[in-house]
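Quick one, T. Sequence first:
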Amino acid sequence: FNIPELMSKVEERTPYIVVAFQECERMNILTSEIKRSLKELDLGLKGELTMTSDMENLQNAIYFDQVPESWTKRAYPSMSGLTGWFADLLNRIKELETWTGDFALPSAVWLAGFFNP
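Structure tokens:
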């Protein structure tokens, strides 16, 4: 999420808008870590980087359908395996995209979809 662009859309920072920005920032941190770690693992598997213990742990977590520790540190609480967790992540991103599209107060909010409900 491009936070400066989102901020330029908003005239008044209501509590609802502030929560939206916080959720977008947290999602950016999580998705950045996912991208970084997967790119690093890809380079390690290709032989372009030396495999580290973090890369091996990531590889093992993916193999055993577990959410890698480096991701759970930055993510919302969840007991799901990696497959269910990732599907949930995509739903949360979709919800945030809808939410930040026009910042209109919806009739219902998915509270469990927040990082800190």
